[in-house]
Fold:
Amino acid sequence: MASVVAVSPRAAETSSTVAVRWRRRAIGVIAATALPVVLGGCQLPTFGAYRGSTKQGHDEFLLWVGTTIAAIVVGVIVAALIVWSIVAYRKKSDVMPRQFQYHVPIEIMYIVIPVIMVLILFGFTVFTENQVDAIAPNPAVKVHITAFQWGWRYQYPGNVTVTGVTTEDPDPIGYPGAQCEPAVDCLGPGLVVPAGQTTRITLNSQDVIHGFYVPEFNFSRYAQPGITNVFDLTVQHPGIYRAQCTQLCGLYHSLMFFHVVALPREQFQAWLSSQQNQAKAAATVSTSHSTTKAAA
Amino acid sequence: MTVLADRPVIHEHEHEHHEGPSGILKWLTSTDHKLIGMNYMVTSVIMFFLAGLMALALRTQLASPDSSFLSFQQYNALFTMHGSLMLYLFAGPFAFGGLANYILPLQVGAPDMAFPRLNALSYWLYLSGSITMLLGFLVAGGGAAFGWVAYAPLSTVQFAPGSAPDLWILGIALTGFSAIFTGVNLVTTTFYLRAPGMTMFRLPIFTWNMLVTAILILIAFPILTAAMVLLFADRHFGTHIYSTAGGGSPLLYQNLFWFFGHPEVYILALPYFGIVSDVIPVFSRKPLFGYKGMVFATMSIAALSTGVWAHHMFTTGAVLLPFFSLLSLLIAVPTGIKFFNWIGTMWRGQLIFTTPMLFCIGFLFAFLMGGLTGIMLASPPIDFATHDTYFVVAHFHQVLFGTAVYAGFAGLYYWYPKFFGRMYREWMGKWHFWLLTIGFWVTFMPQYVLGLWGMPRRVASYPANLGWQTLNVISTIGAYVIGISFVFFLVNLWVSWRKPVPAGDNPWDAHTLEWFATSPPVHHNFERLPPIRSERPVWDYHHPDARTIEHGSAHTNGNGHGHLAGADAGVGAEPGDKA
Structure:
């Protein structure tokens, strides 16, 4: 009796351990395939998009990849159904097809499933947009950007103002060691930011609406008269990033290039203090000038 | 094609019976919905061809980097007019002024529109508005150059001086009034001029969609006209409504414009969904799958479309992102219903691939691609990355080309025998379809990639060493293939005009009432009507043994014998539908 009792739980245990083992294996396989996808964003297929050179742009990239995969799956299923209908139900005889019109369970199914998919996508969207639009409490540097027909003005701390008119001056920054490859990447005035740190941008326009767009940052924002937009960019690596105005702003919209120069932290600080010293010197000159004038 | 032997006998002498002026005087004074509809169609297709030629000029410019084929000013003016003609003067008026004007009264069994003279006024306002807008090319400075959206402050007098912008604004205002009047007419005709037995849930889907479109017109177009009046006031009376100088708000213009603009997208789409929903069942020899679901899907698209306008403004940083994102995403649900209903209609049918059916299938693929990228763009972070790039250009061209061109020309081929009583040449229609399809995909798929690489829209040139030229050349070649495909359309019309092949009244063995009239229909359309027991009265009349299988529906088919279906079994189940 005892042996029987002992055998039966043992058998049950064996079958459950088998199930557990299979479940573990399944989880392992799923994790092995999913983990690189989740953690190693660099290994993801890009579907033609940039991986995002800023922290914010990379967050967007992850959403882009997920959404694109979902869209491809849905698109392939729907296209397959259409192709199947075309191939399988082409007219073969004069037999009258069955004149059916409703199938309530299927109709409910293709309402419910899309609603669920949309809500999932919406969840990821809100999560990502909160990350992209998040404002850090202590940015490393604050830059005020003003767009105008046709160029950009950057105001850094310490009264440093750099203005670039895109139709006149291809590269007004000219920081030491700048390498523009290809050369066209240096078109337009550059915004200089520190790499690896957060830059707070305050953006508006002095005339019409312009678009601040850096393709590799996966980011754009309108520069508008009357509205001040504030956002953070955390460029991850030093480099020169091509950028362009995206919102039609008149005759020379097509030429309204600029670029973002991300310098290593120390180099950025050195550049900024040299600019600040120049600004101070200029201010002193103009002040003494006006004093002389007043005296005269 | 199937020509039924037992089609109803029509008294030939009624054809020319109507007393009235003829020739140019008839054309100028007629209030016949069919003539007005035809005027609309001819005018809007001319606008389509003009805008298409402009597109070819734009694509030619972009085929090489730093091109000087067009000057910046010419390029900006041409894409402004390309968009304006396509959206304001072709896609909308072709559907609600042309096809709906001609077909809707026939589909509900009415002799004419509810307000025939208002209908004529609509057309003449539309024509004069179109000419006014085009005259902008002839004035000093040449052509409005602020894009079809005319964002303030770029469209204010400070940044867009001259009279071309004024002509553009007046053109929009005139065609706006024309659309509003047509909307009134369509709504009234559908509600009050339905034939006995034609309950709301027996309306053909094309009519349903036109009704919903007309209501959207009444919601959206007054806003546009108001926005234009305010813009005009800013330009000439110093009102500063859209300029910060006087405490106004440029953002107000965008809100007003897109409150019109997004319903407008569905004003440009719903009629074409209606065409597809009418054509696919006919060539599948089955009723439309999920008819009622289709009606509710149309209504929910319309309802949602009034709450999604700011998804065009995600990058302004001044709109509530989650709200507009969620509503925009939700539009995928009713649109999905439509897709599956179209597939369900083809499922286990006997599909006949005539030219209109091919165009509908072309529409399905085009709209699938445009729709999926639309869902992606409804997500603000993805929009941040792609806004105002060629990704968006490719998206909305695939949507609007899918609707206005694929489905629009499906409608033209489908109803062509009804309009003229003669057949087009099927082989030329198929050449048109295949060339168009090749051109379509070759033109727009590279533009998605260009957008992802960062090519902004509305640029007249791009630097040589960004590697954008190859894809731009491919896109330009595709555009020319599209252009060539329309040669087949025009030759087809010409050949069928010179060497007519009689079509008969119902060449497609179709479902809806217009196919019970003669081809072309006589003055005031019908001498008699079949009993209307379902949304397929003509099919039921010709195939009494192949009626739709009822599926747990609350109401039953009427089985009365009278031609005037007074004993209306359906009305009891649908309160409020009685005309």
Observations:
- Chain B touches chain A through 95 residues (CB under 8 Å).
- The CA atoms of residues 394 and 444 of chain B lie 5 Å apart.
